Amino acid sequence: MSFKTIVDIFLNNWPMFLRGAGMTLFISIIGTIVGLIIGLCVGIIRTIPIPERGPKRTLLLVINKILSIYIEFFRGTPMIVQSMVIFYGTAQAFGVQMNRVFAALLIVSINTGAYMSEIVRGGIVSIDKGQFEAAQAIGMTHLQTMTNVVMPQVIRNILPATGNEFVINVKDTSVLNVISVTELFFQTKSIAGATFKFFEPYFITSIIYLIMTITITRILRSIERRMDGPANFIMAGNQMQVERPEDIVRKKQGQ
Amino acid sequence: MERVIDVQHLSKTFGTNEVLKDIDFSVNKGEVVSIIGSSGSGKSTLLRCINLLEKPTSGKIIYNGKNILDHAHDIYAYRTKLGMVFQQFNLFNNHDVLSNCTVGQIKVLKRSKEEAEEIALKYLKNVGMEKYIHAKPKQLSGGQKQRVAIARALSMEPDVMLFDEPTSALDPEMVGEVLKVMKELAESGLTMIVVTHEMGFAKEVSDRVIFMDKGVIAEEGTPEEIFNSPKQERTKEFLYRILKEV
Ligand SMILES: Nc1ncnc2c1ncn2[C@@H]1O[C@H](COP(=O)(O)OP(=O)(O)OP(=O)(O)O)[C@@H](O)[C@H]1O
Ligand SMILES: [Mg+2]
Q1: Under an 8 A CB cutoff, do B107 and A153 touch?
Q2: Which residues, given as ranges, of chain A have pLDDT below 70?
Q3: CB nearest to B76's CB, from A128, A139, A156
Q4: Residue A113: in which H helix or E strand, if any?
Q5: Dihedral (C-alpha) B64, B68, B70, B76: value to the nearest 10 degrees?
Q6: In angstroms, rounded to a whole number, what is the distance separating the alpha carbons of residues A5 and A11?
Q7: How many A×B Cβ pairs under 8 Å?
Q8: Distance between CA atoms of residues A112 and A33, nearest Å
Q9: Is the confidence at residue B107, as pLDDT, over 60?
Q10: Which residue, among B218, B214, B234, has the nearest Cα to B17 in the 3D structure?
Q11: Which residues, including other chains, have CB under 8 Å from residue B234's CB and lie 6 or more apart?
């Protein structure tokens, strides 16, 4: 065990590490995006005001029940177990094996979706009632209220939680090695098996995971800042605006 | 005189709490009606029933000769005809000042962006906020927010404006700027229903004052009648209490 062995192992196996990292990123990006979309849909449906009577009421109640079972199930069981059940379960039920990468995407997406549903629902519930009322008072329908007023605020508010889910996904895709998806952990296991070295490959892998998660966190922070816009606003129609030195500097940097 | 809104036998109960009891109330075109009364008397609930933010338990609301509580009625179109100003402003946090005043015009009234912006600017000028079009709500003071909220409601070009204690959440030094705008609107001939604790405003600006107590209209009359020679004992009591406070 030495620094040299680590470097050697990396130099000899870097294409495998890289492919593994690529697969991990691919699954976690797609999984997070699809999960977010699922979460937005489920969260919105679960916050539709339930009418006092009528068939729409029954329909909504049934849908809500199904959705809460979905959320409970996927939040309440480990992803490693879900992977086994879904991958081997479908193989047994239909006699065909699912494509492993497809299975991985499916598992991560619906798992993330379950968490995001609750995050989105919390985000919607936390929006001040006055925002809904003001939108209704100018004649907006529920859908118009959601798309023009509520959801833009919700999306901004849940961005940190979404980033968190993304980071968790990067790490948790490692459990997919149980269904032999060639993500980073699986690749590392192969390298360790081939070289009979354990510390070094896993050490390299831990660094790769760290680089991925830190980079993602940074990128998301900058997206948040961009969404917040500038801290100050410009007075309209003020032709004689005096440019302060810091403004000029900022403008130059922006170019 | 042309009636804009005519409320008949309106009742509202929350659970077993009967908040409005058989209210009859109407507003004529160009009239400014102030609603006063102690806390919990049902003033806000009445206003919120008029634009259907609360669903009345029974009664009728006649607008343009039609009962808008009939199921067939398009409540979204009706609401565009009523401008609402809230105590807590409720500006859309994700929109800047200009866009607060245009989003309803564009999405609900289907006006073009250019037309909507022109109309919005006209009303923002009226309330003295045209320089702040790029500001987000959180960058404004309370008085400025409320003036933008008034411009937002006016931009829909409603038939009636409803104000629910528009100055109650403001610091004292900002009350004046909002009342000034409202007074100008009243003088321009806009039809207004104003729930207020500002007795000076009610006395000076309104054509008619309604005193509500425990879910009923206890007394109704011109400002002189209500403030100078109230008939009901409870009106006298309320005025005595509230005028002593200031
Ligand atoms: N959503 C609600 N659910 C249950 N009760 C309510 C609801 N809204 C209002 N009430 C009750 O209705 C009564 C009248 O309330 P309302 O807000 O109309 O009074 P108000 O005259 O506007 O008082 P204030 O001057 O304090 O604003 C109160 O007793 C209140 O508790
Ligand atoms: Mg009130």
Answers
A1: no
A2: 1, 237-255
A3: A139
A4: helix A100-125
A5: 120
A6: 10
A7: 85
A8: 9
A9: yes
A10: B214
A11: B211, B213, B218
Q: Which of B11, B19, B163 to mutate to test the pocket of ligand 1 (most atoms within 8 A of CB)?
A: B19
- Measured in degrees and rounded to the nearest 5, phi and psi for residue B148 equal -65, -40
Listed residue (B137, B122, B130) closest to B86, CA to CA:
B137
Q: Which residue of B has its CA nearest to A147?
A: B107
Atom of ligand 1 minimally distant from the CA of B87: 27
* Burial class (CB within 10 angstroms; exposed 0-12, middle 13-18, buried 19+) of A222: exposed
Name the superfamily (CATH) of residues A3-231. MetI-like (1.10.3720.10)
CA-CA distances (angstroms) from residue B207 to B17, B33, B223, B226? 32, 6, 7, 11
Domain ranges in chain A are 3-231
pTM value is: 0.86
Digit-coded pLDDT (tens) for B187-240: 999 999 999 999 999 999 999 999 999 999 999 999 999 999 999 999 999 999
Taking CA atoms, A247 is separated from A231, A254, B18, B100, B136, in Å, by 13, 10, 59, 27, 20
**Cβ–Cβ < 8 Å for B108, A140:** yes
Picking from B44, B55, B93 by the largest number of A CB atoms within 10 A of its own CB, the best residue to mutate is B93
pLDDT reported for residue A185 = 95
Kindly determine whether residue A236 and residue B130, on different chains, have CB atoms separated by under 8 Å: yes
pLDDT digit string, tens, across residues A217-249: 999 999 989 888 888 888 876 544 444 555 545
